Amino acid sequence: MTKLLYFLLTITLFQQLGYVISRREQVITPPLPVLPLPSYSQLKWQQRELIMFVHFGVNTFTDSEWGTGKENPAIFNPVGFDANQWISAAMDAGVSLVILTAKHHDGFCLWPSKYTDHSVKLSPWKNGTGDVVEEFVNAAKARGVDVGLYLSPWDRHDKRYGNDLQYNEYYLAQMQELLARYGNLREIWFDGAKGSNAPNMSYYFSEWFAMAKELQSSINIFSDAGPDVRWVGNENGSAGSTCWSTINRTSLSIGNGSIVDYLNTGDPEGTNWLPAECDVSIRTGWFWHISESPKKLSNLLEIYYNSVGRNCVMLLNVPPNSTGLISDIDVQRLREFRKAINTIFSENLADKCTIEASSQRGGKDGGFGPENALDTDHLWTYWAPGDDKNEGHWIRINAQDQKGLKFNVIRIQEAIGLGQRIKEHVVYVDGKLVAKGSTVGYKKLHRLENGVEYGHVVKIKVTKSRAPPLISSIGLHFDPYWHPNDGQ
């Protein structure tokens, strides 16, 4: 009897062990990534979606956009300066990163640099003891907002400009001041802008970038050529309808206006992950001018769809006035802008639906089902199709309410942590083609020209892709501000 019991227990144990092994065999591994891939810092930057620029300096007091470099520091006197008010305005807009022009083309420094007297220390503001950069950084840190700085390569004041070695040493010295003195920065902004009459000057960008990374390894470097974030090729905040985060850095150069189309669209064969940042000002100019007013809400929303909705980050400049404050009318517009974004995207109507797909990796229990596109993780959980073909895959949302769903915006997001894949896609509502596009990337927003009164079945089909598509999130939203017949 004992031998029989032992035998039965042994059989049961092997059966359970076989069940465990069988269960383990059902754990499906993720698909291979498609190179190149974003860095951790680039992913965090992309998820910000909307960030803010602050242009402030002597131009604020001279009604200028490009200063001459000959301005007397005595004109800089923002008697009501309050960096906390700037940060409050940024937070009202839902912004988590603000970038300040520490030095613009005029060469005037908003911090007391020991390498030049052309700075706040020769201004009457706070009797020459003030430091705009320090107050800005401290105000942001206290509120949990990240900061970045702009340091103009073109300097119209410093006499070393035009002497390659001397000026590059000067520039690097100032960059070291900023990166060593003011804590962790999340972005440093370089541009290639300079006037046609500027002296010939070679910038040592390789040395600048290497020094920036040495001092702060997690910082994102922005320029026409990256290495972390690229310019979109214009200052109206609009990316190409096709916009790859991938591009070839060897084809880029800083200050080269002939490559703007390439910057605007990226390159599906690009060997570098270099996503685009769309810079635009809330007003016509980059610095504050009493004659200007902020753009209409409809204009800002259009820019949002053409930047964030095309796989980019929107960098919105909001210039403080000569008092040292962001004007009330701009603050109000920022609040309206954030309220509109929240109104449009706070509810995902697809959450009320069932979802199915053409296939899924590992089968029903593989962990890569279409339901992943409706969870709250918009990056690391995703639907993956069940075979290796790159086209013909689809995912479909079915409304449960017989009345259907009222929406006019369709959101699609890829799992870009495993690379950007989708080249072409189409969207059908109740069998009717309502949208078609090329790239998706981190986020694609289709704002439907004719709207959808009530739709029952939404089908997204990937018609061309670099590798099997991985869709991390899908949304159906209603935009009450969108009135295409009004020309907005």
**Are there runs of 5+ residues with pLDDT below 50, and where?**
4-24
Report Rg: 26 Å
Number of strand elements: 18
Sheet bearing the most strands, described?
A: 8 strands, parallel, barrel
Helix count, DSSP H or I runs of 4 or more residues: 10
CATH class of the largest domain: Alpha Beta
The sequence of SSEs as H and E is HHEHHEHEHEHEEEHEEHEHEEEEEEEE
Helix residue percentage: 25-40%
Overall SS class: alpha/beta
User: CATH superfamily of the largest domain, please?
Assistant: Glycosidases
- The rough form would be described as globular
Descriptive terms for the model:
488 residues, alpha/beta, TIM Barrel, Jelly Rolls, 2 domains, five-stranded antiparallel beta sheet, 10 helices
Give your account of this protein's structure.
This protein is an alpha/beta fold. It folds into two domains: 40-345, Glycosidases (TIM Barrel, Alpha-Beta Barrel); 349-486, Jelly Rolls (Sandwich). Helices cover 25% and strands 22% of the residues. The protein contains ten helices and 18 strands. The protein has helices at residues 2-25, 40-48, 59-62, 83-92, 132-142, 164-181, 205-215, 260-265, 297-307, 328-345; strands spanning 50-54, 97-103, 146-151, 187-189, 220-223, 229-231, 246-247, 272-273, 276-281, 313-317, 354-357, 393-398, 405-414, 422-429, 432-437, 444-455, 457-465, 471-477. Strands 1-2-3-4-5-6-9-10 form an eight-stranded parallel beta barrel. It has a five-stranded antiparallel sheet with strand order 11-12-17-14-15, with no helix packed on it. Helix 5 links the parallel strand 2 (97-103) and strand 3. Helix 4 (83-92) packs across helix 5 (132-142) and helix 6 (164-181) packs parallel to helix 7. Mean pLDDT is 94; it is low at 4-24.
